Amino acid sequence: MWAFIHKLGSPKWFYGxxxxxxxxxxxxxxxxxAVGSVWGLAFAPADYQQGNSxxxxxxxxxxxxxxxSIFVGLAVSGLVFLVWKIKVADMAAAVMAPLGAAMTFxxxxxxxxxxxxxxxxxxxxxxxxxxxxxLLFLYLGVxxxxxxxxxxxxxxxxxxxxxxxxxxxxxxxxxxVDWWYTLHQPASFTLTSRPSMPVDMWWPLLLMVLGxxxxxxxxxxxxxxxxxxxxEASKRWVRDLAREEG
Length: 246
Description:
Distance between the termini: 36 Å
Number of strands: 0
Helix content: over 70%
Shape: globular
């Protein structure tokens, strides 16, 4: 295990192994999202209370899940970078942050659209919505800190610290509907309990969640490879690779 982790910290080794992994995650993402979206939007039955407006769940829930997971990934990557000085962890964090911010925005926007027919308003200062808005600000703060210093390492350290501190917001998001009175409904499904929705609604949602995660992994691998080439441009193995491909 330690040998694998040590190899994973090598930009050259990560660049090579990610090239073999990336296509499989792209294929899985396309298939899962295609099947899940068609199933959920065209074949899943309408909700008995919300009608067809509930179908936004097939975008809202995967985006919300991914937004929270990516920030946890930022915190873990920041810890690895600060403690073990592994450059690949910082490169991955740099490319994950914009995608996490985008997913948080999608979750907030789709939730607002869903709130109109459900709550009669675009926005409520609900505990879940407010904590998700804070998550968006944390993402923007992480992104801004990376460009706020003349030294890249200083920006990386500052962004890592903010991610590690800001991760405390993730359990607040998750348990906000349990800790406070909120209009937001509880989780649609969890790994520890039976889903409350019918199976023919739940399965396409599960496929969409898995598809979004595969999309995230594939895109992160692709962008991290680009980041490696950009940062390691002066290294011999990168120059040799450029000559081979050119």
